[in-house]
Write the structure tokens for this entry.
Amino acid sequence: MPYLEGLRFLENLDKICDVRRKYLFKGELETDEKYGYFPYRRPIDYYIKHGVVNLDKPPGPTSHEVVAWIKRMFGLSKAGHGGTLEPQ
């Protein structure tokens, strides 16, 4: 049952975040995977193509340098940043 895998995923996230919630499932629908992935089944290539890298930039390198590093690390032709990457 896919919803049980999803429930375990959410419960693990809650443990990591030290959150206590109760979940209620009203029903389970079939989903065609061509429309997306369960988060725990999503391939790393999908995260790289469609994902966001959340980072805490240290003092020193410029925002432009950090974006260049990310592009090089993940082999990307395009990358950018939203907002400032400056500390504080």
Residues 44-88 form one domain. The first helix runs from residue 2 to 17. The helical segments are 2-17, 44-50, 63-74.
